């Protein structure tokens, strides 16, 4: 018979516990190791598959893990595109971190092939936009996208847009009045924030029947700040190896910042929806709207029924119009600011535009739809500025079937392609001397490839609000002479930057 003291029994239990804990730790470590090995094998096999799939498309040497990102900082991305376009005028793979790659296209024939197909948007590039703009028209694919596009297209009918010109001219007048007061202080004016407020004001009036001017509203300033932050945050997340996983990102300070900015943007959106809903509930208002020949964007959504007969929920509504309001606002504001900058740096062209508009409107007359096609030179300058500084530098697709390009090279299903609008517009084979601002490229009768100029993309997924550029004319009024500020030369980048005068497209 063996007797043991209570202390000895305790020691035995403790060592058994330690033994089982270390056993569990060993098994866990082995499992983690196994998972890491499987992941590494997957990455290796995927990289081998990509190397084979892209062998017809040469590119500069890259790091096996960091790809081409190791060599280029974010600020140098557009510089890199210009250099590569000269070396590879049609297309060239860009290796991303972790052995991923996408093929960047710079050639109009290549663009035509891809925009003529119906490949979905590439998940990797667009998914970071989802918490902000939700799965609205911009991010949807397939049948759901088709239904939504069909539902919203009437909101951009010419007859509706005609009425918008006067509303836009009104928003522009408010902005210019503000400038007049500020310029009395004889200091340079950073126009981007003002233009952002003006475009937001226009979109709110045109698409959401918003009354009054938000340009003088303090809340709108924080909204503009939030969406400009979101633009930066989304672009920097795409490039950060450690910020790809949603859970890890939500724990970082930038993840929390993104969350706060999204909340602020959504609050603003919700307020606008509630306001319009309340107006529609007033007696007779709903009937008045239903009798309208053409409904605006928010009214279409508010009156739309889901297939099962329920009215769209507020969240659905927010998702469907946030892009148009927030992302389109920054895109349009960026476009207008660069047009103003291009004119400020080319005084002779600016003078010709001013004379043209002055000849048409004289002093003080307000611009109307009928004036828009009577400004050929101003239109040429706007197009040339959109060529040189495209507000959307590139869009992505994921090939759903293999593709063969006109030069015989092909890519298999599953490859991500980036249609580099910036690369196309700066391609010397398409646009000789691409860095020179030359509006005569768009002179009436000048021959161009159908897909050489794509600021609003092309094909069935082109920009639904593209006619807006025709309405940019009113901003170029003869009230001011624009001059560049030599102490703050803006540097184009792929994301919004404020500190050093850089500006996103
Ligand atoms: C200078 C101003 C603008 C430019 C340069 C521009 C450019 C673009 C581009 C390049 C796309 C294609 C995106 C892609 O395929 O990923 C696009 C899509 C879109 N744009 Fe614009 N945009 C502008 C203004 C606007 C405005 C004012 C609105 C609405 C009020 C708008 C609404 C949309 C929508 C809803 C889509 C998604 C269309 C779809 O996928 O069916 N945009 N835009």
Automatic annotation (TrEMBL):
One of its GO terms (molecular function) is oxidoreductase activity, acting on paired donors, with incorporation or reduction of molecular oxygen, reduced flavin or flavoprotein as one donor, and incorporation of one atom of oxygen. Keywords: Endoplasmic reticulum, Heme, Iron, Membrane, Metal-binding, Microsome, Monooxygenase, Oxidoreductase, Transmembrane, Transmembrane helix. It holds the Pfam family p450. Its cofactor is heme. One of its GO terms (biological process) is lauric acid metabolic process. InterPro entries: Cyt_P450, Cyt_P450_CS, Cyt_P450_E_grp-I, Cyt_P450_sf, Cytochrome_P450_Monoox. It is found in: Endoplasmic reticulum membrane; Microsome membrane. The chain crosses the membrane at residues 17-38. GO terms for cellular component: endoplasmic reticulum membrane. Heme binds at residue 463. CDD domains: CYP4B-like (cd20678). Belongs to the cytochrome P450 family. This is Cytochrome P450 family 4 subfamily A member 45, pseudo. The lineage of its organism: Eukaryota, Metazoa, Chordata, Craniata, Vertebrata. The gene is CYP4A11.
């Amino acid at each position: 018979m063996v007797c043991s003291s209570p202390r000895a029994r305790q020691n035995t239990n403790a060592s058994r516990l330690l033994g089982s804990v270390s056993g569990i730790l060993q098994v866990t470590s082995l499992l983690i190791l196994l998972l890491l090995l499987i992941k590494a094998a997957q990455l290796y096999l995927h990289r081998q598959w990509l190397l084979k799939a892209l062998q017809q498309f040469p590119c500069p040497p890259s790091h096996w893990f960091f790809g081409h990102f190791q060599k280029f900082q974010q600020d140098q991305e557009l510089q890199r595109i210009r250099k590569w376009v000269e070396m590879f005028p049609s297309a060239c793979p860009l290796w991303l971190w972790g052995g991923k790659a996408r093929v960047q296209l710079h050639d109009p024939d290549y663009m035509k092939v891809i925009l003529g197909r119906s490949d979905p948007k590439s998940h990797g590039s667009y998914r970071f936009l989802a918490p902000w703009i939700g799965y609205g028209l911009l991010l949807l694919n397939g049948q759901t996208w088709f239904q939504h596009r069909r539902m919203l297209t009437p909101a951009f009918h010419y007859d509706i847009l005609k009425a918008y010109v006067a509303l836009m001219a009104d928003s522009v007048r408010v902005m210019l009045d503000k400038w007049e007061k500020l310029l009395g202080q004889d200091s340079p004016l950073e126009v981007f924030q003002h233009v952002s407020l003006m475009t937001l004001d226009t979109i709110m009036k045109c698409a959401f029947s918003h009354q009054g001017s938000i340009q003088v509203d303090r809340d709108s300033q924080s909204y503009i700040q939030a969406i400009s932050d979101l633009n930066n945050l989304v672009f920097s997340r795409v490039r950060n190896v450690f910020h790809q996983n949603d859970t890890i990102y939500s724990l970082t300070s930038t993840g929390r910042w993104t969350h706060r900015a999204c909340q602020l943007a959504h609050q603003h959106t919700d307020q606008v929806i509630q306001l319009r809903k309340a107006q529609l509930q007033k007696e007779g208002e709903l009937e008045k709207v239903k009798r309208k020949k053409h409904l605006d964007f928010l009214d279409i959504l508010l009156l739309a029924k889901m297939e099962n007969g329920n009215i769209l929920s507020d969240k659905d509504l927010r998702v469907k119009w946030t892009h148009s309001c927030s992302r389109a606002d920054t895109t349009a504001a960026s476009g207008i600011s660069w047009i103003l900058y291009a004119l400020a740096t080319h005084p002779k062209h600016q003078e010709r535009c001013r004379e043209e508009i002055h000849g048409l409107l004289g002093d003080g007359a307000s611009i109307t739809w009928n004036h828009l096609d009577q400004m050929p030179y101003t239109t040429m300058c706007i197009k040339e500025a959109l060529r040189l500084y495209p507000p959307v530098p590139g869009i992505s697709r994921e090939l759903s079937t293999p593709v063969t390009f006109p030069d015989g090279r092909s890519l298999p299903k599953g490859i991500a392609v980036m249609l580099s609008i910036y690369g196309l517009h700066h391609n010397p084979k398409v646009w000789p001397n691409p860095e020179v601002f030359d509006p005569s490229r768009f002179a009436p009768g000048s021959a161009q490839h159908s897909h050489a100029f794509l600021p609003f993309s092309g094909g069935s997924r082109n920009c639904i609000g593209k006619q807006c550029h025709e309405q940019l004319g009113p901003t170029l009024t003869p009230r001011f002479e624009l001059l560049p500020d030599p102490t703050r030369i803006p540097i184009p980048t792929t994301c919004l930057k404020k500190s050093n005068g850089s500006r996103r497209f």
